[in-house]
Amino acid sequence: MLKLSNTVEIADWEIEITQIRAQGNGGQNVNKVASAVHLRFDIQNSALPAFYKTRLMALQDQRISKEGIIVIKAQSFRTLELNKDDALERLKEMIQEAVKVQKVRRATRPSKSARRKRVDRKTQKGKTKALRGKVQV
């Protein structure tokens, strides 16, 4: 059971976890032990609320296929259990980021004093540059 919030949870049967062999270095052990994890989660066939599903499908993430299946590969750790926990945590973070409501940005204008200071700085800079010219004899 993966708890996303107080009211939303993902059941274990909705998440498909398969063991695979990790890529990269590891000597002889890497060819024998399947310690990496492939996590697959089908957004459309899950019990998530509709709001969650639409927000996840709208994400432009390479881990989400066109069919709405999230695939996460975890192979950072040497043990299967740690990789499984890592994959579940990454799925949880992905879903929570997708449903986070962005704060509405309101356009603001600089204050009168800020505009005045900006123009004064520009004028001062111009005077400094004007003094860099050739000296008249």
Automatic annotation (TrEMBL):
Q: Where is the Prokaryotic-type class I peptide chain release factors domain?
A: 21-37
Under which EC number(s) is this enzyme classified? 3.1.1.29
- Region Disordered, as annotated, extends over 102-137
One Pfam family it belongs to: RF-1
Give any GO molecular function from the UniProt entry. peptidyl-tRNA hydrolase activity
InterPro entries in UniProt: Pep_chain_release_fac_I
Keyword Cell membrane (UniProt)? no
The protein's name: Aminoacyl-tRNA hydrolase
Q: Which UniProt keywords apply?
A: Hydrolase
